[in-house]
Amino acid sequence: MHGFYVSGTDTGIGKTHSSAALLHSLRARGMRAVGMKPVASGCERIDGAWKNEDALALIEASDPRPIYADCNPFALPLPLAPELAARDAGVEVELQSILDAHARLAASADVVVVEGVGGWAAPLSAELMQADLVRALGLPVVLVVGLRLGCLNHALLSARAIAADGCRLVGWIANAIDPDMDAVEDNIAMLATRLQAPCWGRLPFDPAADAATSSRSLQVPA
After folding, report:
1. What is the pLDDT of residues 109-149, one digit of tens each?
2. I need a labelling partner for 207 at 20 to 30 A (CA). Which of 57, 74, 94, 135 fits?
3. Residue 159 in domain
4. Is residue 19 one of the residues assigned to a domain?
């Protein structure tokens, strides 16, 4: 296994933090682990180039650290769905550029952790779905489940869609995003019995937590 594709039950449920924690966990095993955010919308101008904070967080968690253009081939300025942000920027998000960047990252790493956009069914462009990219890269999927009311429905539908698209779910991460959620343990237990993949860990609710600290809560299979 040369990498993972990290998807989520929705947007804003902690894919980036989970991906960065996963990178630290892999590095703690002595592996060269590099992060990638192929398409990112919502960027700011830094040193004359558009850069996204999620991609920068993945670079920070990587070793060796990739150049920005390989980590995030498509940096789209507006914080919109990628298809809309690309249209506004006059950019065409296409598969080959992503595959080429991924190949460069893989050449210098043992594992590449690729973070998707939004939830599983969020398109990358008018012609490209995330499932197309995952199949082209040949990567298994790790699902980040944002623990809040409705997570059972979102997680099970996501897992069903991943399988229907011909992709393989190999694990999931429970990420606490609602400190007031009721029956958290019951929800995690229900997810564990229904998702056909092992839980790789539970990240507690802590807005100040750094990825290296959070990585200690993960148990990634060998």
Report:
1. 999 999 999 999 999 999 999 999 999 999 999 999 999 99
2. 74
3. yes
4. yes
